[in-house]
Amino acid sequence: MKIGIIGASGYTGVELLRLLHNHPKAEVVYLTSQSNDSKPASLIYPHLDSLYEHNFVTLDDVVKNISSLDLIFTALPHGHAMAIGKLIAGGTTRLIDIGADYRFKDYKIYEEWYKVEHTHKDHLAVYGLSELNYEQIKTAQIVANPGCYPTASILALYPLIKNGLIENSTIIVDAASGTSGAGKALKNSYLFSEVFENFSPYGVTTHRHTPEIEEFLSLAAGERITITFTPHLVPMTRGILATCYAKLKPEVDEAKIAAAFKDYDNKHFIRVKKATPPSTKNTRGSNYADIGWFIDERTGRIIVFCAIDNLVKGASGQAIQNMNIMFGLDEKMGLELGPVYP
Ligand SMILES: NC(=O)c1ccc[n+]([C@@H]2O[C@H](COP(=O)([O-])OP(=O)(O)OC[C@H]3O[C@@H](n4cnc5c(N)ncnc54)[C@H](OP(=O)(O)O)[C@@H]3O)[C@@H](O)[C@H]2O)c1
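^ thats the input. predicted complex w/ NAP below
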């Protein structure tokens, strides 16, 4: 497969490069960076030395040759992938967008939360939560790779909602992310002296991943779900831990919950354990999502945790999993890397 990566100099782009180097069917042809045009990728990212001989090119260079590619990954800030999606429409090139442009079935939600006009409203993109939309992903021309927090939160809550085990109006998600979740752009709040030895919430009641989680869970439930979602920043490079709380419906017992999570038994990248809290370190560098669940008998609530690496299952790893599904390959191809531990 001939592949172009648009936004290859960002954190998710560079993670695609690391993972695709290990993929037997992938040939990366173009890497773009507007600010590093013509420079060797390994000059900007020395860890790529001996792995990639490529120089960065610009977006225009890829656009000119777009029909020669089987697949494009866009790893761009929101608002930029729609132009690429429109360009490939009707052709044979396929697109996986790691940003948010194609994540919503209802473009009005995108416009409301992202404050930009959706310029490709009639798209037929499929939401690329690999395990839950596997069949639709197979034939999609455009796959919207899910956000990092939504991946962890939806995987934790979906079995409970699909099986009608919780009061859907009581869902609370507290999630924490490492700083690579914000990308490589310079921002004061991500300076070492701000983040180190600190732990703080942000985007309280306003984070853009809230409507993404709500839209997917609402479709699963067949009713409108709203959640309280509070993200936090933790002083680590990679990793997300989502802690989800909800009130159990009357008569729901441990056996019913265990049966609901059993649906994940044949999903290679989802590892579920009862009464065992997961940790980000056990998923670091890998495509695994580790889920642990507990019943709080005193309050009648369930607590479900999901840990992922935000750059792998939360972005580039899941994107490659989706690529494998789209091109009829084993979904694990190129992704059978164990977590980096410690
Ligand atoms: N970081 C995560 O954990 C994560 C997880 C899931 C999803 N995402 C989403 O994935 C996308 C990329 O995130 P990231 O963390 O990789 O961001 P990033 O580190 O800030 O990288 C952004 C990339 O986009 C390029 N770029 C910026 N503006 C551009 C433009 N106008 N035209 C062409 N290229 C442009 C940059 O190229 P230059 O070299 O020219 O600056 C860079 O390669 C975002 O939409 C983000 O929300 C991120």
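DSSP finds eleven helices and 13 strands in the chain.
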